[in-house]
Amino acid sequence: QVQLVESGGGLVQAGGSLRLSCAASGNIFSINVMGWYRQAPGKQRELVATITSSGSTKYADSVKGRFTISRDNAKNTVYMQMNSLKPEDTAVYYCNANLDSDFYMDYWGKGTLVTVSS
Fold first, then answer.
1. Is 17 exposed, middle or buried (0-12, 13-18, 19+ CB in 10 A)?
2. CA 3 to CA 77: how far, in whole Å?
3. Between the chain's N and C termini, which has fewer beta carbons within 10 Å?
4. Residue 34: what pLDDT?
């Protein structure tokens, strides 16, 4: 059974930094795209950043220049360094991975809460 486990969320003041991690484990043959999504209270879940197995990245306009996504393919882990955090970044951040465990499908972590105080 595949599991995605996030860590690194917490409370930080505006302008501060946090680093999120997400490790995939279980019966995994390969991982295609990994990414981070977030959902703020009362809002829909939105894409924050994604990264392919070859290292190509994509970011939401709202985080460009502040967040950096990276991954360690050997550890099946994706990271996101979040700098210059703003109160509007407050949300539950979810890890996503499109991976092959008998067949390709999307898996989600349970989420980690990031709270940015003003």
1. exposed
2. 12
3. N
4. 98
Find out whether 95 and 39 touch, Cβ atoms under 8 Å: no
pLDDT in tens, 3-34: 999 999 999 999 999 999 999 999 999 999 99
What DSSP letter does each residue of 16-60 carry, written as one string? Answer: --EEEEEEEESS-SEEEEEEEEEE-TTS--EEEEEE-TT--EEE-
User: Residue 85: helix, strand or coil by DSSP?
Assistant: coil
Residues pairing with 39 in the sheet: 92
Q: What tens digit of pLDDT does each residue of 61-115 get?
A: 999 999 999 999 999 999 999 999 999 999 999 999 999 988 889 999 999 999 9
Instruction: Output the six-digit token pair for 90.
Output: 């407050």
Q: What span, in angstroms and rounded, lies between the C-alpha atoms of 17 and 30?
A: 31
In the 8-state DSSP scheme, what is residue 78?
E
Under 8 Å between Cβ of 3 and 25? yes
